[in-house]
């Protein structure tokens, strides 16, 4: 048996609990009935390449080059805001407050309710404690110190968005989980009771604690085991209360559907949009800061309505770009578009209707760059394409669980 087969056989034998569970029974039947499921897999709203678009060898040469590794990490400790219980115990004066906990994790306090998006409190985004991307800064506040959370929203099942130790801790509370189709199988496997799970297809809505939560399309993919079977859906989310509404992109490439989401659900008081872990090697499944700004405007999140909060950067090393590049380019994109872009330190609460943090805190701790900061020209908007585009295959196991 080859070394590669031996490794795969060994990993299958280990079968870490973090791999989760595959959908089955009525859950699988519901997946098969979804209009977004065809040819045995969930389909993107626009065709998307998931793996490196060029030679894997060329990608590896760039990714593991010493000088590139230096650029992809901060040169000093990341300044984490010392979030206190008083910060998050006092109700927001405007009725809406966001606290970015790092990566895509955001505590959203909206109209008297508390929503926690993509909570990842674990040390690595990986099924294994000894491998995979390691956290670059500590969590701003212990999970238990957050206090009661009305609903936990999960965008998709990659390890940097769906974290086993975090979910197990939350399973012991009374919170309700809103997740895309199929993801409930993981949660039940980890101890969340079925009556606390709301599983949605794209454009379906559920009501929780007086809030309306709608799963909306995204351009990405799924999977956490030895095979990506595409049997769990990925989604962006709209959360609307009596007075405010917000949007969380999850992970997504740019696609024209943002305009439809904005027309149906906007305008937004705040958009939380993925602007990190982009690369020319996988241009269809993550957005650059310039594309993130375009999405924000398409969504009707722009002034005078709302603020863009950049997410999915700064906490884990998941792509070849420089560590601080997403923060800098997002600030550039905001200045060029005349739009408000928040720049909170991890753990720093702010109200979109109040004073928005804009200090470029990353500059003092960013590694030197080979060239000055530059803002790339926006990528052209993709042409419309049929939804049912065949997806390429992926390696059997991606320890990062994402790109």
Characterization of the model:
The structure is a single chain. The protein is of the alpha/beta class and 403 residues long. It has one domain: Metallo-beta-lactamase, Chain A (4-Layer Sandwich). Helix content is 21%, strand content 16%. The protein is built from ten helices and 15 strands. Strands 8-7-6-5-4-3-15 form a seven-stranded mixed beta sheet, with no helix packed on it. It has a six-stranded mixed beta sheet with strand order 9-10-11-12-13-14. Strands 1-2 form a two-stranded antiparallel ribbon. The longest helix has 13 residues, at 325-337. It is globular, with a radius of gyration of 20 Å.
Label this structure with key terms.
7-stranded mixed beta sheet; 6-stranded mixed beta sheet; globular; alpha/beta; Metallo-beta-lactamase, Chain A; disordered C terminus; 403 residues
- The tally of structural domains comes to 1
* Major beta-sheet overview: 7 strands, mixed
Mean pLDDT: 87
How do the strands line up in the largest sheet? 8-7-6-5-4-3-15
Which overall shape is indicated by the principal axes computed on the Cα atoms?
globular
First-last Cα distance: 30 Å
* Number of H- or I-type helical stretches: 10
Structural class call reads alpha/beta
What fraction, in percent, of the residue positions are helical?
10-25%
Q: Kindly identify the CATH topology.
A: Metallo-beta-lactamase, Chain A
The level-1 CATH class? Alpha Beta
Q: What's the total number of strands?
A: 15
